[in-house]
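Quick entry between incubations.
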Amino acid sequence: MNGLYLAASGAASQLDSLDTVANNLANAGTAGFRRVLSQVESIAGDGSYLYASAPAAPLVDMGQGPLKATGNPLDVAVTGPAFMVVDTPNGPAYTRNGELQVDPDGTLTTAGYPLEKDGGGPIVLPQGSITIASDGTINVNGATQAKIGLADPAGDTLTPLGGTLYRNTGPDPLPASTGGSQIHQGFIEGSAMSETGELVNLIGVMRSYEASMKAVKSIDDNQNQTIQAYTIQS
Amino acid sequence: MLQALSIAATGMDAQETRIEVIANNLANASSPGFKVSRARFQDLLYLTERAAGTQSSQVSYVPTGQSIGLGTKTAAVDQIFTEGQLDNTTNPTDVAIQGDGFYQVSLPDGTVAYTRDGSFRLNQNGQLVTLDGYPVQPGISVPQGARNLTIGPDGTISVQVGNATTPTTVGTLQITRFINPAGLQPMGQNMYVQTQAAGPPQVGVAGQNGFGSVLQGYLEMPNESVVSEMVELIEAQRAYEAGSKALQTADNMQSVANGLIPNG
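Done. Structure below.
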C-alpha cells in the first residue's frame, strides 16, 4: 500500500512543476522577469529504503534576459548581476524591470514604486530631456541629477513578490553594487525565459507525471489481482 | 481543475492584449503626430507554500521559499513620446513640433485637448482649426484676402493683408508640455486629454525654455517602425503558442488522472 502513496507524491510534485512552467511561459512578455526553476526533493519516509518526493524550494534563475532596443529614453536595461532598488511600504524591493515612469511631481518610478538613488532616497527630476549614463548617472538638460542605485544579490535569497519585484530574505538592504553591472538607456531587458527550454520542461513534466500514474495503476492492478486470488481461494 | 490551466490562460490573455496594441500601432502608420503604444506586463502574485527564511531545524533556515507564480497581468498600455520623422508637405498650415510639447485644441464641450498633429486648416471664418474643425487654443483668425501665411519657429503667425508689403501678426501658436506625457489619456483623433498622472499643463513659447519649436510646411509622422512592430507581432504569436502548449499539457495530465479509474 505504501507504494501507492509514493507514486502519488511524485505525481503531485509534477503538478507543482507544471504550475511553475506555466507561470514562466505566461510571463514571456514581462520585462525583467526571472524564470523560476522548480525542484523536487526526496523525503525519507519512515527510515526505510522507501523515499517519496516533495516539491523543494524553487530557485529564481539569475540569468541575463535579452536586451530589446526600444529607443524610449525612459527605458533602461541592466546587464550584470545587480538589481535596481525600489522603496515599497514594506521596505526595499528589488527589480530588473526598467520600464521607468515619471510621476506628476517628477519622481522616477518603476513597477509602481519610487526608484531609489545611490545611497537611498527617491529620484526627483526636473522637466527636460533625460540621458542616463552606463553607471546610472541621470542628466537632465546637461545637469547631473542623481545616480540610480544598484544592489548585488547575495546568494539565492531573492523571492518573487509579483509585479516584477523581488524581496530579499537575507539581511536587508542588499549591499550596493561593487561594479560589473551596467545600465543601458533605450533598452528593455525582456523576460529571462527561453520558450524552447520551458517547452522541453513541459514534456519532461508530462512524461514524469505519466510514469508516476503508471506506477499508481500497476500497484492498483497488483492489489486487484491479490484480492481476486483471495476471493477464488475462499 | 488544475491551477496550471488558469496560469497559462493569463499568459495567452496578455499576448492577446499585446497583439491588439500592435494592431492599433500598425493601423496608425500614417496618422500624423501618432505615438506608438506598448503594453507592459508584470508577473502576478506568488502563492507561498513554504516561506523563505523559516526554520528547517533549530540551527538552519530555508534559504528560498516555495512560491508558485499565478501568471501575468497587463500593468499598463502607455504611449512612447519620442519624436517621429518629419514629412515635408509644403502646405503652409501644416506645422510640426520639433522637440517637447503639444498644441492645445478646444473641444466642442469646452474642454481642452492636446495634440502633436499639426495638420491645421482655416475654416469658413478664417479660424485655424484641426481637420475635425476644432479651433486651436488660443484662437487664431486670419482675415479675408490675406496672403503669404508664415509661421515662425516661435509660433508667431503673420500674413500680408491686401496690398500691404509688411506682414501683420495675427496670433501665436502656444505649446504646452507635461512632466509625464505618458500619463495623458489618448482620446482618438490624434488627441490626448490631461490627467492627474500627466501633471499640470505648462504653457510656454515655442523654442524657449525647453519647449519645442514649430516648423511650417512639415508634419510629424508616427514614431513607429513597422519592422519592430512586426518583430513584436512574431514574439507575441510565439508566446501565445507556447502558452497554449502549457494549457494542452495540463489538459493531458488531467486526462491521465481521469483514466486511472476504469469505466464501469
